[in-house]
Every structure is written in C-alpha cells, then in structure tokens.
C-alpha cells in the first residue's frame, strides 16, 4: 500500500462520552442487572479507568426513573474511603450513563462464586470496611437499605466499598421508614412483616449480620427454604426465628452475629458498638491465633 493511500485512510471512529470518557474498541462489561449493564471506560482527563452504568430509560418505569434521580442526588453528596465514588452523569439518546469509580475486584458476591465461603479472618476485614462505610452513611442520616454481597465492591488494594444506593435515602429528625424495600432474604423482621413504621438504621444492622453470614457460608441464609419472598416473609414473622449461624465460627464472631440478628430492633447493637466489638478488633479470647490464620509470605529481595 502506498504512503498516499495509507494517509488517506479514514480516522478510526471512537465512542467518547461527553468528550471525556473513552470506551474501548471492544465493549468490556463489568456487570449486569435489571437496570442494564456496567461497562468499562477510560477517563481521558485523569487517565484512570472508570465504570459506566448504562441505563436505557425506555425500559424504566416513571417510579424507577424518580428512584434513579434520587440515587444520583444522594451519591453526589457522598465521599468516603468505603463508599464507591460518584464521578458524573451524562444522558445520550435514550440512555442515562452514571460514571463511577472503577472497582476491578468486582462484587463480593462474584468473589464467593469463584472462591466459595471466605475465611473468618478475611470476613472480619471485609465487614469492618462495611461498618466504616455505614458509620459514614448513618452520620449523614442516610440508610443504605439494601446491603448484601452483591452491593459490596472490592478495589485492587483489598478495600471493600458500599455501592448501589437505589434503595437508600436520607432520614432526619427521627423520621421512620414505612415501605418494604430491599432484598427479601436480607430484610430485617420489622421490614419484611410490615407491621408499622421502623427505624431504617437499625434495619441496616440486621443486614450486616446476614451479609456476614453470606460471606462465611457462600450463600444467602434461608435461600433453600424460601424459594419465594412470601415464604421468607412468613418464616421471619415467626417469633424467635433468625438465620442459622455456622458452628465453625469463633465465639467472638458468633457473638457479633447475635448482636446484629436481634429480632427486637431497639436491642440490636449500633454500628458504632459493632465497630468496637471483639470480633472486629481481634482482641477476643478465641482470636489469639488470628495472626497465624493467614500466614505471611517472606518477600525475596532483588
């Protein structure tokens, strides 16, 4: 091919969002959901990879669109080490694109699918990150309301961050929640039974316990017994019912779970209390060998 013909070749068309976010030549999908999909892009301003949540508005109900607007408004106000960072929003055609911090480790649910139940020591580290993120949210009067491993993302440094704020909202001046919202198998009894207004921050504490059980067992509690949300609602409405706790966990871990999974919301531990629980700081009597649970690898020196 001659130099003249080579130089006259048409330039490669690139898919660039708002003149800033460059999509790859071949679409890289990070995740999918009922909303659409999350794809990878390159922020040409910073040189960093980002995640773009692509939501076809034609497929969304008016109620869901309102929910997305509320979610974006909320994320704009959040900035914390354990919360996925919101970068921006752009609408192109019938798609709404929400640009977020790229989390290369994916969700903890994906981690469980690949690696199975996680070691207690790793669960301790991950749940501590979750508690820090929730402490920040609750300090801003925001309840997450849909905590689970699917909504916890892992960055390259091993830090866990809270994501997906579609069910989240701000509650001020002692305001109570009244709607059944979230993922059924993770709902606190007072949410699932819909007996009246409830404290959404205390409901988040219950989901911390269920999420920890999901990490420890590799599955959602009651998943086998409750094939439908209605079966779970009927089961959790019975007095004394809480998710089963594995027998292999240390005593401090069991006690931590029992502080979360208290059916009486007012008797549950607060996020602040849980952060200083023996299970989290590793000072319990059954944690004397914790440092040896995951051996250290001696790095070779060049």
UniProtKB/TrEMBL annotation:
GO molecular function: ATP binding; protein serine/threonine kinase activity
Domain Protein kinase: 24-280
Keywords: ATP-binding, Kinase, Nucleotide-binding, Serine/threonine-protein kinase, Transferase
Keyword ATP-binding: yes
SUPFAM superfamilies: Protein kinase-like (PK-like) (SSF56112)
Keyword Translocase annotated: no
Official protein name in the record: Protein kinase, putative
């Amino acid at each position: 091919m001659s130099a003249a013909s080579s130089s006259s070749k048409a330039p490669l068309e690139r898919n660039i969002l708002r003149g800033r976010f460059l999509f790859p030549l071949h679409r890289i999908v990070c995740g999918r959901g009922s909303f659409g999909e999350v794809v990878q892009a390159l922020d040409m301003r910073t040189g960093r990879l980002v995640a773009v949540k692509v939501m076809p508005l034609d497929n969304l109900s008016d109620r869901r669109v309102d929910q997305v607007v509320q979610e974006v408004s909320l994320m704009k106000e959040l900035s914390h080490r354990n919360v996925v960072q919101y970068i921006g929003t752009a609408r192109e055609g019938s798609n709404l694109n929400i640009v977020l911090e790229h989390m290369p480790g994916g969700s903890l649910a994906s981690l469980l699918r690949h690696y199975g139940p996680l070691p207690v020591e790793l669960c301790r580290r991950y749940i501590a990150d979750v508690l820090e993120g929730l402490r920040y949210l609750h300090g801003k009067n925001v309840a997450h309301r849909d905590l689970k491993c699917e909504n916890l993302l892992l960055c390259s440094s091993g830090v866990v961050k809270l994501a997906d704020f579609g069910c989240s909202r701000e509650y001020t001046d002692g305001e109570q929640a009244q709607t059944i919202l979230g993922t059924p198998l993770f709902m606190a009894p007072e949410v699932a039974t819909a007996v009246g207004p409830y404290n959404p921050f205390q409901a988040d504490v219950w989901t911390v316990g269920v999420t920890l059980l999901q990490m420890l067992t590799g599955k959602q509690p009651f998943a086998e017994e409750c094939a439908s949300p209605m079966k779970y609602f009927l089961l959790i409405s019975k007095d004394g019912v809480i998710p089963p706790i594995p027998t292999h966990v240390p005593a401090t871990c069991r006690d931590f779970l029992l502080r979360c999974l208290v059916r009486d919301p007012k008797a549950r531990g607060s996020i602040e209390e849980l952060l200083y629980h023996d299970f989290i700081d590793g000072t319990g009597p059954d944690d004397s060998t914790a440092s040896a649970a995951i051996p250290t690898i001696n790095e070779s020196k060049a």
